[in-house]
Write a sequence for this structure.
């Protein structure tokens, strides 16, 4: 016997058994169908981008995987500057720039592909993972309608996954930026980074950090905290609360107007489904208006935001001399799935997609069994034909092991009817292809 | 304005516009649904494998892409031995070995993922491409049923792609191997490689090569050519033709028996859909019995086999001390798609998946338009809501540009009915959510 190399799992690169993969596939199918039902078109981009494209905005803190050919011809440099994508936003920006003249704007696209980051792997932080992104890009101006539509799409997408209730938190960075300008606080990045931690370190923690790290006065911290602790889904309440801060800033007012538009648009959403939460600022520097985070209300093990995003004024300027504002949001599918799987929330599907196992009664009934299976497939059923005329008991055991819900018995004797057994209830009775309804 | 890095397409890594990607997606959906209708379950494996796994059978002629971290911590070696998969068969063997105890055998799996090879790119030979594989693996013995089922599945999968008629050519390597043993021809690899070229270099070419390169006698070449030129879908005809060669070989007879079983099983297939063609030997060394190739009969630009495979006696022995025979077949999806696209056979889909564009008549009708769109989505329609209350003409032009087939007009005046316009026929009339049937 030849030498055996026993492979072990590669840390950070998840791989599932068929019964788990099937659930992941159902998730993706559902998310995709919701995205399409709002008119988002699909694109796929190559797994690789040029390193120059990935680095166009300067160094990134993402751990990038570069490619090299094991058996490369040293003279062939055609793929020596390639690396795996670490998100789908950079590829979208590059794609939009490159195909600019052939796209119709506003360009509504979704993308469900894997991305790769060489981070230290742990549950919920893999090196290879699926992301499900929707983004809308426009030329020069992007209507606020799209900021408002994002939460509706995401809510529908996530609620179909049977993971309990979710809440989308919405804010608008302009409000905080306007306030910081008015208060003459210059260190915007540090300040917003600290406010972003409100949920984790609490009011006292934020107060301490703002004072010690940024040197903000007590009075200004009060104002910042008054703003950051506002939570409401009612545009009128939001307006009143913000008016009380007496901020005279165009940027501030613009942000308020925009956020009110979004809240009004989303007023049809169920109680608790969304809320304006002014502590949401998102770390990423390129968001310029609306920002989103999403929490799972019924999964205590998943504490971070499962789906985040926002508006950026100018996405593709690294690759094209056009102003392309966009708004987008991304479901971290694998992160969510792996945490839920690890904590027992994922109920495995059957090991086979088949609805029916077709029994093979004897070698001379093979053509009949095959033909019957074919007829059932033509009616839309998934049918696995058993592979050998073994004992019925053995064939039934196979159906059971693969959790195939129905077993079909072609007759041993042509005078007899076909029979169907429901493996869950144990019921069995005569059946015909024409009369079957599962 | 910041510096613009103008990206160019990366040779060998295809990327499509939304209207083309949609066709590719429809293809994949169809293929997947056929695979599942025969009870194949889906798996996905990581994009990467350990290099030791890819090389377990020794050096490969595939051009492998290895990974390295751009910003790697030199102490962290956890992902320094990773490379992108170059097919889906090696990952399947590794997967089956690794999860052996959790799988139910016969293990019927399909896999539709991209693979990567650093080959010199040209149309129909990309560096990143989709493969659609089905394989069945069993422990120790694999029933012949699965050899027979493969062509039925593949025929249904390919015929649904609207690419004209196809023909699956089937042979069994044991027949030729048995004959070569009987004729005492030792150089099996060179001989089969030459016979495999029969289609390309013709009988005279094969005759010349067999004589000059392998030193086979005239008489034996006659026998080999008699065998290799047999083409029939009728098991009885095949038996007669092979009997005429007077070969006394157990291996030969086994191959004949097996091929007859497959032909008998597939006798329900339409005229021309499949044929036993004894010139088919497949280059790969690991096939041991049934082998398949598939030709497109109506696409002269696609000359090679679009879908090939066969049976292997022992797939996973590099990774596990078990005998796991298998049979599998693979559709080279991207190769097929790119050649068809290049030659104008692919009709682009609409630029949007939406069935209906919902017009936004005025700002104060936004809630009504939104609500109506939501009701239509609940009925299963894909509805894009126009983003701003612009001139109706502009909204219609948008529907036209995105090829959205229907436009819905909520009333400006509540007393009026909603209206629906068929963009193809120009018909327009009153409609309600309840009465809509597209």
């Amino acid at each position: 016997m030849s030498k055996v190399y026993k492979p072990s799992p590669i840390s950070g690169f998840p791989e599932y058994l068929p019964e788990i993969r099937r659930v992941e596939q159902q998730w993706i199918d559902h998310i995709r169908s919701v995205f399409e039902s709002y008119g988002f078109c699909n694109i796929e981009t190559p797994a690789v981008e040029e390193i120059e494209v990935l680095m166009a905005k300067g160094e990134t803190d993402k751990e990038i995987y570069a490619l090299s050919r094991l058996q490369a011809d040293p003279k062939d440099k055609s793929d020596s500057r390639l690396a795996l994508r670490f998100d789908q936003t950079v590829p979208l920006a590059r794609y939009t720039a490159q195909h600019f003249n052939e796209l119709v704007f506003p360009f509504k696209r979704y993308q469900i592909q894997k991305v790769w980051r060489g981070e230290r792997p742990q549950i919920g932080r893999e090196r290879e993972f699926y992301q499900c992104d929707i983004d809308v890009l426009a030329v020069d101006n992007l209507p606020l309608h799209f900021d408002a539509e994002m939460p509706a799409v995401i809510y529908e997408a996530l609620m179909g996954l049977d993971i309990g209730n979710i809440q989308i938190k919405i804010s608008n960075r302009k409000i905080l930026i306007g306030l910081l300008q008015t208060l003459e606080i210059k260190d915007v990045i540090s300040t917003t980074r600290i406010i972003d931690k409100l949920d984790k370190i609490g009011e006292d923690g934020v107060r301490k950090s703002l004072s010690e790290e940024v040197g903000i006065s007590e009075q200004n911290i009060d104002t910042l905290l008054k703003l950051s602790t506002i939570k409401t889904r009612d545009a009128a309440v939001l307006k009143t609360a913000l008016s009380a801060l007496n901020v005279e800033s165009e940027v501030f007012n613009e942000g308020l107007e925009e956020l009110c538009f979004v809240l009004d648009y989303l007023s049809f959403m169920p109680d608790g489904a969304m809320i304006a939460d002014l502590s949401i600022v998102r770390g990423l520097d390129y968001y310029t208006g609306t920002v989103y985070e999403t929490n799972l209300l019924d999964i205590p093990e998943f504490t971070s935001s499962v789906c985040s995003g926002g508006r950026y004024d100018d996405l593709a300027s690294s690759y094209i001399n056009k102003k392309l504002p966009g708004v987008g949001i991304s479901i971290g599918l694998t992160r969510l799935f792996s945490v839920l799987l690890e904590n027992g929330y994922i109920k495995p599907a059957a090991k086979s997609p088949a609805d029916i196992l077709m029994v093979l009664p004897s070698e001379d009934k093979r053509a009949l069994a095959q033909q019957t299976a074919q007829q059932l497939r033509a009616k839309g059923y998934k049918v696995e034909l058993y592979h050998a005329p073994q004992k019925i008991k053995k064939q039934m055991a196979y159906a059971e092991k693969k959790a195939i819900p129905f077993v079909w018995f072609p007759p041993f004797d042509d005078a007899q009817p076909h029979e169907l057994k429901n493996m869950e209830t144990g019921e069995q009775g005569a059946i015909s292809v024409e009369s079957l309804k599962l």
Summary: Chain A has three domains: 7-157+298-340, 165-283, 356-431. The radius of gyration of chain A is 28 Å.
